[in-house]
Amino acid sequence: MNKDPLQHLLPGTYPVYIDLTANIPLDIYFKQSIADLAQLETFRPLANKAYAADKWTVNDVILHMADTERIFQYRALVFARNDKIVLPAFDQEEYAGSAKANQRSFDSILQEFLLVKQNTQSLFSTFDDEALLRSSKFSKYVLPVLAIGYTIVGHQQHHLNILEARYKPLL
Fold first, then answer.
1. Along the 171 residues of the chain, how does pLDDT read in single tens digits?
2. How far is CA 19 from CA 1, 6, 68, 102, 153, in A?
3. CATH H superfamily, domain 16-170
4. Burial profile 140-152: b = 16 or more Cβ within 10 angstroms, e = fewer
5. Where are the domains of the chain?
6. Rounded to 5 degrees, what angle do the CA atoms 102, 104, 110 make?
7. What InterPro entries does the database record attribute to this sequence (predicted)?
8. Which residues have CB under 8 Å from 106's CB, separation 6+?
């Protein structure tokens, strides 16, 4: 399924990451997002470096992407299974500060992220159209599962854009 069923969402009623995605089928997008992880290899020499004081290191950014994707996997599962619980937001700064990414190797973080991405692809492959269009609420958003899928790939693209713009000049 592509993004067409999300056209009814009004700006400001969904995570901005969806706007970073193209209108291609989600299953193809997940395959592409796994392939896009190869781009991260460029940043290996900067694994424990940040582009400015009080900014995350490359390791922090990659682990943040993995953590966030896990959280979105859970949200998608809850919505797809028709659970009506309202899920809370999460504090990305708390997660990043507690993760200790810079005490880990670049390879271990990259491998973890690859596994998370493969799990995302596997999870979403189990959702039929009815599940993909089922909505529920997290934080301030009421979204269908499909929108969560596009948020996942858009979030990754957002951070790949930041790595390219702010970290690549340090190479």
1. 999 999 989 888 888 999 999 999 999 999 999 999 999 999 999 999 999 999 999 999 999 999 999 999 999 999 999 998 988 889 999 999 999 999 999 999 999 999 999 999 999 999 999 999 999 988 888 899 999 999 999 999 999 999 999 999 999
2. 17, 11, 18, 31, 10
3. dinb family like domain (1.20.120.450)
4. ebebbbbbbbbbb
5. 16-170
6. 105
7. DinB-like, DinB/YfiT-like
8. 44, 47, 58, 59, 62
* % helix, strand, coil for the chain, step of 5: 65, 5, 25
3-state secondary structure (DSSP) of residue 28: helix
Alpha helices for the chain (secondary structure H): 26-35, 58-80, 92-99, 106-125, 129-132, 145-162
pTM over 0.85: yes
